[in-house]
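JOB MANIFEST
job_type = single_chain_structure
chain_count = 1
residues = 303
[input]
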Amino acid sequence: MSEKPQVTFFSKNIITCPACQTKFQKEELQTGRGRLNAGDLTLELRRMYIPTQKYGIINPMIYPIVVCPSCLFAGLSSDLKKVLPATVPEIQAEEENRDKLLTDIFGEKIDFTTYRDTVEGLAAYILAFASTIHLPKESSPTARRGLYALRAAWLADDLYQKDKLKHFKELRDSLYYQSYINYTDCLTRQYTHQESFDGFVWMGPDVDTNFGYDGLLYMIAYLSMKHVHLLDPQEQIVKVGTLKRVLSKIFGVGKSTKNKPQVLVTNSKNLYTKATKLLEKLATSGFDTSVADDIENQEDEES
């Protein structure tokens, strides 16, 4: 990719890959001087950026993932620091699979020693997603997979919107589904004490604002609605009842709402309304939707 010296730079700090001991530098985004022109948040809590005349389009989301240019082990800086020595042989053994994964998706090798663009950013998140299998449960790997898949879906959509290639549309949809599966699974794992969120401090989902646990719950509800059509009608009713319960906890009432970001409250209310309309549509089609109300009201009685 073309060099962008006014936008990014390679840090002088040397990173050592915990798996293969390769030493490399990480590309960092320069700040200030009007480089970033923040726009609105989407319904997916993604921050959009407005191109500037001098710097064009800059997407800070493509830079956080650290990728070893040699063995392709990847993750946030905090991921790499939590690799246990006992897992190093496993990471080394998976190097060929990581390389094949990128070749299968992009049709060529990706060079992580040069300046990144959207393709490299997408590839980095895909590698980070794959690399989480080597992280201890204390690092909240399931929740991280949900986040990495979501950001990868955003970048795949950026590429699809640019060139309208069917490949990136299919990849985007697959990544959204993986995000849905892993976000839902991480919540189940937390409830059953299999995997906590202690190692998942920055829940994002984007890089500029951490919406925390409420943001995570919202994204689970949002992705559930996005994929609810994959379920049969009775399963849809149960799923919608559950997500309505979750959403009502987010936007709440009274003082609890005042301490939450307005965009999260507004989005949750809008999604709640959409869920209600889906239940009404199912009821009109002759399905008994009372179980959804029972699920929502049951949680209210317990709280």
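[summary]
The first strand starts at residue 8 and ends at 16.
The beta strands are 8-16, 23-29, 38-41, 47-49, 66-67, 74-75.
exit_status = 0
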